[in-house]
Input
Amino acid sequence: MTDTPGERMDEGIWARLHSKKVVQWGIAYTATAWTLLQAVEYAVETFHWSEPIRQWATLAAMLGLPLVLVIAWYHGDRGQQAVNRTELIIIVLLFLVGAGVLWLYEPSMDNAKKSGTVPEESTKASPTVAVEASVAILPFASLSSGTDDGYFADGLTEEIINTLAALPDLLVTARTSAFYFKGKEVPVPEIAAALGVANVVEGSVRRFEDRVRITAQLIRAADGFHLWTETYEHSLADPFAVQTRIAESVADALGVLLDERKRAIMSEVGVHDVEAFVAYQRGSELFHQAHNEGPLVPLLALANVEFDAAITRKPDFAEAHFQHADYYAHLLIDDAPGHGPGFVSPTGVGLEEAARRLSADLDAAFRYERDAGQRLVIQAVRTTVSADWRHLKEQITRAFDAWDKCRHGLWIDQTAIAFGYGEKALAHDLKRERCDPLGSQWTRLAITAVWIGRPLEGLEYANRIEAQRGQDRDVMHARILAYLALGRMDEAEALFAAGNLGAADVSEAMSLLALQIPAAMGRATEWEGLRSSLERDPGRLLVGAAVFGDRPTANRAAAEIDAMTLGPAILLRVVDRCGCGVPFDLDATPNFARYLHDGDLPWSPPAPIKFPLKSW
Output
């Protein structure tokens, strides 16, 4: 059969491509580019680089392919040779086309940044790839009807979580995220997908007379297969002793090698006192209700009644001491300002006594805490509310470097941002995503991102938590701050009204939006009316005066706070919430200025929101 001219031409072109090694060069380039893009992907995820880095790398790899093919066509079959005019023209044209594509792409990115829009996929919670050695301990169901049986079941669940979390080879979902599903009828695969784990532990607890029966089962989420199940019956004299047996069985079923050292660590974790842990669970419930729903200080006072009971039973209960301290801190920072030195709380605690108890609680928490990283966090917090900041800078750095647990840090984030450690705070909260994907750190993460000059990231984090948990006031607060930083004033004001964030029951931080929004919009005439309502609240007065550009009033309010018990710590909190850079002159706050000098601390707070009336 005779080949047609078209067939001979096709054969000739293919033969020339083959002889010039164009195909080989193309395959080699594609493989190399793919490998490099995988490396970029890994680096972006590991170091939390911004999304445009990945996009630019992909564009560069795509645009590089035709350039490599042209070079192969002219040089692939004969090695090194001079560049002729045709080749040079083609290469120049390719560079011009590539530059045009990149130029067209860059404005589209700029427009997205200016408008505050992000690609649709980035506004949703990123699915987390589960690793095999990962597990979520869901709240054990209480099958008894006693008053404290539910708290007992929650306590046992938390003890198992803490015991397993002591193993570095195992990813364990934190309590906040695991307890999100308490009382909800959600299939195991959906729970596992939301938490980013491959396995789930479910269980039940029944108390009767002086015994307790505990049933636990480990379920592989992918297919619902029960990897392990066991029922334990134990004396109520030490029911939490079973926590180690359950934890060891779960770890063994997931292939975690347990040597004697790891077993010893696991056995040391926990409270091992029923009454202490039931009291702690009641206190912890009130503690979280205070911070999430309010009213803050009254509910913290009730929580402390339970924490007192837990500490009485177990004096070395570090976490109870740490949370117990929060009431006295908020008493001094939120309630006392504006009431003078004779202030006494509804619980009968005066200023000096509150400061003494705060210090004692933090000392005890530091003394009894077993985790080295958490001890450093407590140390930094303790120094922040002390009269000696000489080692605070070093302590903040060490705390963030060593803090690798999903534990509450109280006020370390705010302190870090005020002193220029916002990137460290952001990086730590991002690390917590793996073990606490539904935790409250997302709203703090969003605000931190705004405060360090990344409002678009702040919006993205707010979108993530809203997609997972739904819209709430905390999410609205973070979103409004991002809108203000982006100059999207109308959206900020509309969301403030829609969320009723001007209501009397909002947190102090949210109440500041009523000052920040009109100030950011330059509505100077509103300040006189607002100022008269703030005279008995020096913290809010300071923020309002700063954002409205009333320097004398800001300095007067700052001087009043500086002279208070815990004054410098209160000023740090005001700075963190203002978002306005330096809100007062250091000359007006001699105590605060001395603390900064003694600690060699930087003083250039971030100013993410532009307040046109503020000139300093």
